Amino acid sequence: MTDDAPPTQASPDEPTRRRPPLRADGSGLVPPDDETPTWLERKRRSAGLERLTYEYFERSRREDEDLRRASTYLDRDVLGFPTWPHETVRNLTIVSFFVGLILLLSAALPPHIAAPANPSRTPAIILPDWYLYWSFGLLKLGPFNPNLAILGGQKLMSDRTFGIVMNVIVVGVIAMLPFLNKGMARRPVEEPFWAAAGVGGLLYAFTITVYSIKNLVPIEHNLLFDLTHIVPLVGAAIAYAALRTMREGYMYDLNRRYYRLRPPK
């Protein structure tokens, strides 16, 4: 007895293993929705997730392009609305709404003007603009500045210089990230490590911002310093564990959609 569909060819990475036959309805390697995959079926889909995702979207794009070329519709190459009047009218409407909202708030809630600054008196608390709190917090990482024995217990550089160096390092790492991660992942679950690193970075930006205004936070300074660096690590570890747990199920669902919606020709 022979099957109606021919068996799939083995991939170059698996030259000796034969896979179950694939059918046009998605049965075979990918079970129906109401069936739970076995452990072996899940393990067969535990590698190559980034490549599979890329092939899925690339095949979709290529087939859509083929359909568009085969169409006899005159405007088959138009993939969006024209700039005039559709996009222009919509953008002008949105801009007008927000401009009117800003004018209304400025008229109804005028800003409070404080007393003139006293040039002969230094304020008790000096802070930069709120979006620079994270950089201001890096200037306060003096406890990380080591005391070297070869210098007689003195620090290699001042705490102020050390804070500037930390700013340069952090900005340099952020600038290098696009060159370090060149994968084809489109979702966090496809790259758990980099997604967890992003979560840790966001948490650290928040905690270092809070630490920069430690004089206004009702927490003991040493405890706040420890929490500033422990919370991002814990958050990144939790995100990585959660994404690793979701990765297997996501890859199985992606395989099932790939072979069900676009079965092999």
Query: Any idea what the shape is?
Result: flat
Low-confidence stretches: 1-33, 261-265
Tally the beta strands. 2
The major beta sheet can be summarized as:
2 strands, antiparallel
Q: What string gives the helices and strands in order?
A: HHHHEEHHH
Kindly report the spatial arrangement of strands forming the biggest sheet: 1-2
Count of separate DSSP helical elements? 7
Describe this protein's structure.
By secondary structure, the protein is an all-alpha fold. Among the domains are: 27-55 and 187-265, no CATH class; 129-180, no CATH class. The chain has seven helices and two strands. The chain has a two-stranded antiparallel sheet. A hairpin with a 5-residue loop joins strand 1 and strand 2 (154-155). Helix 6 packs antiparallel against helix 7 (221-261). The chain is flat and about 80 Å long.
SSE topology sketch:
Blueprint: H1 39-43, H2 49-70, H3 83-108, H4 133-138, E1 147-148, E2 154-155, H5 159-180, H6 192-212, H7 221-261
Antiparallel strand pairs: 1-2
Helix pairs in contact: 2-7, 6-7
